[in-house]
């Protein structure tokens, strides 16, 4: 028997945000794992005549919260039913993100079978879903995603990749593993993020990036004019600029040994030492003064050989 719901009066204000009672009831049924009730409510909402008081045509997307609830419960049958009802479109990505966070492997398999792009950025300034388990320490999910085509170098609009995210917070063994699975230190501005890592192993992560070929003297986004223009107001420099700004004295010393140029200017015309000074990092400033002196002595010799 069809589940009967008396039609409520349509609110005078906020009609665009009005949702029929079936929407909330469907979410409740999904939360209770009641697939039969979900099917009845979907039938009544989407496929049966609606009360004349409703001015908005019911939309499958109104039931989006029901599919995320089903994902949280790892309810594959309910997820499949709601997908068949077009609750989410093929190119929508949030369900994939939810499934990764909930470790719903069987749901993820279903999404991949239906053509979901495992390497699509979560948002314009967020990398794809591989970045999630890298930060939560879920190595099983990391391996699962990589085995199914996740690219550690897949970027968002700002050249921010899962490996970039790993530089900031993933365990060191995860980072080592990524490099065995194709992570490219020349992509994703890895060194820019490694120098910002605020953990005891930060220097080890910086070493990994440099040893795998991350450019030491590259100004962030210097080879991407569009992104450079967009991010320029926030300040763009080399990894040495950022390490100096944040007072990472051991990282600064290491970068200098690897050939980082203490005289190179950022997009605001400032040397790394400027940022160390205004941020109150005297030990970094001293190291940079000595490095500037050495580089200043070398430069005339280099010019004379041209």
From TrEMBL:
Against SMART domains, the record matches this protein to: ANK (SM00248)
The keyword Lipoprotein is assigned to this record: no
Q: Which SUPFAM superfamilies match?
A: Ankyrin repeat
Alphabetical UniProt keywords: ANK repeat
Do you know which Pfam families this protein is assigned to?
Answer: Ank
The residues the entry assigns to the signal sequence are: none
The ANK repeat units are at 238-267
* Stored PANTHER family: ANKYRIN DOMAIN-CONTAINING, ANKYRIN REPEAT DOMAIN 44
Official protein name in the record: Ankyrin
The scientific name of the source species is: Trematosphaeria pertusa
The lineage, from the top, is: Eukaryota, Fungi, Dikarya, Ascomycota, Pezizomycotina
């Amino acid at each position: 028997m069809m589940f009967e719901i008396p039609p409520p009066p349509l609110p005078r204000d906020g009609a665009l945000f009005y949702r029929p009672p079936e929407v909330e009831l469907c979410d409740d049924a999904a939360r209770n794992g009641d697939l039969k009730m979900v099917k009845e409510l979907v039938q009544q909402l989407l496929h049966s005549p609606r009360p004349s008081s409703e001015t908005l045509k019911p939309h499958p997307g109104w039931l989006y919260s029901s599919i995320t609830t089903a994902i949280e419960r790892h309810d594959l049958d309910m997820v499949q039913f709601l997908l068949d009802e077009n609750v989410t479109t093929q190119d929508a990505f949030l369900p994939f993100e939810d499934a990764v966070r909930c470790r719903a492997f069987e749901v993820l398999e279903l999404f991949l079978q239906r053509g979901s792009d495992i390497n699509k950025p979560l948002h314009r300034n967020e990398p794809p879903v591989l970045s999630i388990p890298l930060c939560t320490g879920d190595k099983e999910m990391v391996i699962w995603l990589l085995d199914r085509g996740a690219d550690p170098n897949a970027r968002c609009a700002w050249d921010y990749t899962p490996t970039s995210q790993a530089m900031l917070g993933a365990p060191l063994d995860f980072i080592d593993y990524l490099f065995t699975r194709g992570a490219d230190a020349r992509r994703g501005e890895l060194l820019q993020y490694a120098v910002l890592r605020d953990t005891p192993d930060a220097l080890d992560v910086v070493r990994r990036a440099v040893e795998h070929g991350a450019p030491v003297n590259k100004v962030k986004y210097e080879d991407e004019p569009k992104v450079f223009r967009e991010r320029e107001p926030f300040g763009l420099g080399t990894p040495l600029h950022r390490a100096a700004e944040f007072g990472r004295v051991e990282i600064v010393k290491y970068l200098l040994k690897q050939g980082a140029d203490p005289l190179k200017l950022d997009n605001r015309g400032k040397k790394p030492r400027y940022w160390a000074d205004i941020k109150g990092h005297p030990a970094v400033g001293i190291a940079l003064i000595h490095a500037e002196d050495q580089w200043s002595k070398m430069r005339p010799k280099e010019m004379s050989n041209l």
